[in-house]
Amino acid sequence: MTPELQSRLPHIGTTIFTVMSQLANEHQAINLSQGFPDFAPPAGLIERMVHHISHSNQQYAPMAGAPVLREAIAEKVDRLYGRHYHPDTEVTVTAGATQALTTAITACVRPGDEVIVFAPVYDSYMPAIELNGGKVVTSNLQFPSYKPNWEEVRSLLTSRTRMIILNTPHNPTGTVWSVEDMQQLSALVKDSNILLLADEVYEHMSFDGAPHLSLARYPDLAERAFVVSSFGKTYHVTGWKIAYCVAPAELMKEFRKSHQFITFCIHHPSQLALADFMRHEPEFADALSAFYQAKRDGFRAAMKETQFELFPCAGTYFQLASYARISEEQDQDFARRMTTEHGVAVIPVSAFYPEGDDHKVVRFCFAKNQTTIDAALERLLKI
Ligand code: PMP
Ligand code: GLN
User: Which of 44, 53, 77, 129 fits a disulfide with 134 by CB distance 3.0 to 4.6 angstroms?
Assistant: First the structure.
């Protein structure tokens, strides 16, 4: 008989990304739900991967990451945000941003510690906090601007607040934090022991000329921050599951204590390929915002002809839209019906709220070829 297992995550089901992608596959729907591009990674990166998988070291990489990749990451962060992280002690390569985020939480959060998150919240943060015995404290972004409510955040601080997790550009809302948000955050954590975990996986997707405001730009924030980015997003290789974390040496020392026993090290040839590509084609990442801005603009222009009402989109490859003019259904039901009846899969935004708040909003991923977008639009125009 299988022993009875008391779940450590009793209220958690299967992640919405898996649920919706499976439903899309079952119904041959166009999948604008889970966030991933349907176009090829840069040829130069694939060429380097083929090279390294044929000719280079196929054994364990160093625990913290291949030195060439850590150096390339440190150079990039320095060039873009003006902070130098030492490749030996302040940069670690991880198995996706998901692992980096979970590792940072595992390294820092003790039972009873409180961690502030902003909802809608990316779905991996809360389970990671809870598995470590931490308490999730949620501050809702204000609807419909999705801006942080700093007064509320201040009121949530206690002597047990261990960490604040932020995400800019933000999934799912497509908002980005402003300089004023950064100032508010600085004032909040000044002279405290609060750590920051910055999920910046969409760092190369911020639009309309706005520079990405990495915490690495702000010395008083960076000194207490783990900053996470993902190569999956930047180079159209979400399936490679490679990302990184940068943090001051004392924080990174603790991060690595956990990292070494969670994965130990990351797929070696991919690291060497990414290092080569970053060195040889730095302009690829620099051009990504313009690339996705054009996709955003095309998608928004076409969506204006539908019954959906669009929210602003300042970054990421996601577009939020209200369907209030179309239906009064719960967003989970509406998203399901869009997939099964109309053949376009989307994500219901209530899935990103701990209490399931439903504003009748769904998320579209526009990281798609024009033919995919055109085919989806043809269907969306009929709704
Ligand atoms: N954070 C956010 C906000 C994301 O949207 C994603 C993923 N898509 C991740 C983290 C996880 O990134 P990765 O696929 O590198 O684990
Ligand atoms: N981050 C991606 C999204 O928001 C999905 C990643 C995943 O499936 N875990 O759609």
Answer: 129
